[in-house]
Model the fold of this input.
Amino acid sequence: MEKKKENNKIKTSVWDKVFVVCNTLFMVLFVIITLYPVLNTLAISFNDGTDALRGGIYLWPRKWTLQNYSTVLQRQNLITGAYITVARTVLGTLLALAANAVLAFIVSRKDFLFKRELSLFWVITMYVNGGMIPTFLLYRGLHLTNSFWVYVIPGMFSAFNMLVIRTYMAGIPDSLEESAQLDGAGYTTIFLKIISPLCKPVYATVALFVAVGQWNSWFDAMLYNRMSSNLTTLQYELMKLLSSVTNQSASAEAMKNAAGTVTPTSVRAAATILTMLPIVCLYPFLQRYFVTGLTIGGVKE
Amino acid sequence: MASQEKKRNITWKEIKKQKVLIIWSAIIVAYGVIFCYLPLGGWIMAFQNYKPKDGLLHSAFVGLDKFKQLFSDDTFIQVIRNTLAMGVINLIVTFIAAIVFAILLNEVKSNGGKKTVQTISYLPHFLSWIIVTGILHDALSSSGIINELLLKFHILDQPLNFFAYPQFFWPIVAFANVWKETGWNAIIYLSAITAIDPSLYEAANMDGAGRWARIRYVTLPGIKPTIMILLLMNVGNVLNAGFEIQYLLGNGLVKSVSETIDIYVLKWGISQNDFAIGTAAGIFKSFVSIVLIVIANQIAKKNGEERLF
Done:
């Protein structure tokens, strides 16, 4: 009896070791699959374009050059795209944050007369929308097409972000608001001086969500501002680079001769790295914000 | 009568007191009406022989003709199939990947290792689909790493152009979704796992439960409510998961499996200027989504999970 138990224990501990080894291998493989493509793009971006066509570049450049980057930085459309992208990200994030914070504040006031109606009004928009064509026609009618404002105005309010902030505000004790009201503070003061300072973590979360969305969006630039090259965005320019690479891989030879040591692939690699750089540098430091944000958002209501 | 009078008095007082809130609400509702509800009026186009010069008010009504035209178009049937198939495949595959990853990561004992892997796992979520499709093109190109590995292990004799074969398209899209979102989706399961009462694990250990038994009888039941809620919440989005990657990765050779409802709408509505057909297709999509949400909600209610709405 004793022996059998002993045996069992040894057996489980052997299995346990096998599991730990397999699990570690799995995690290593996971990390490799996640990072390799990014590091490979980084290596290609620092490698001579013509040389890269020979293949065989993995994690380290074979023939170092900065020419891909200097080519990117000399392209007017990419510079314009960078300016517009930064502008829409900063302005879009600030406006969206202010808008959703005010909305969340209003619907989380327990005594507000229309809080249910206002909540419902926005929750419905999560499930029903006009669709691409009516929206396009509306924006055209409002003269938002071929305009910078199409990037920041239409997406200002979002039911999801409102719900995330509202859930957080609901956790703030009522007594704070009540004592401020006794001191004669109005709703504006309560919002600005009492609730908002306490909501910094959730504001950071929502700002992060909006900023990443703004930084990465390209479809609105293509759909609404295709004719205005001065309103192009970084991602849209990157998309054009991608399609030029895939369509012209046959004529890459011709490009190679014309542009010297720079190829569409190597330029795209450099542009990709520059585009992902700000996000990749920032996100590890913002981790705790999006982890809390997701947990609040996921549970909803 | 008197009590009613009194009630109204209070209401007026309340309105006065809440003046600021009401004014801001009015501004916000005006915004919502314009940007979220006004486009719904555009749905009328789907029932008209819409001509831009006549506008919504003067175009002739044609009833359900546009919908009939839509459903007699074989391409549209194909497009519905593609949207549903990719939506369902992606939903299932990304769900399983995130749950498995969260459980396995939770079993990692070293705290530093756990944190490092998790931080790396978020990275792809922050990259745009443009960048992800660019990476996929590089990895799967004839000189890319995948072909190179397959050649090295003699699985292939010559490089394969993965984007030229329709049978590879859905798996590529599913893989891309898994690559991009697994770490991100796992966040919520990991936090659900940390919320499990540690005494349950202790009890399981006392009973001599091995690692597998602990996962199966403690961890999985512990995160089951989270899994159910997320699954139900995502069912309504099945049809929304089909635009960016399909648009960016699709090409003439795989058109029959890559085009989704949204791409169809874009093609007919914006490129061909047939607003009526494009709108009708959009309405169909909204309709199916709402039906899916209602079904999911019914199932949630039956299972005692009433948190969906």
User: Anything to note?
Assistant: Residues 2-45 of chain A form the longest helix (44 residues). Chain A touches chain B through 88 residues (CB under 8 Å). The CA atoms of residues 107 and 114 of chain A lie 8 Å apart.
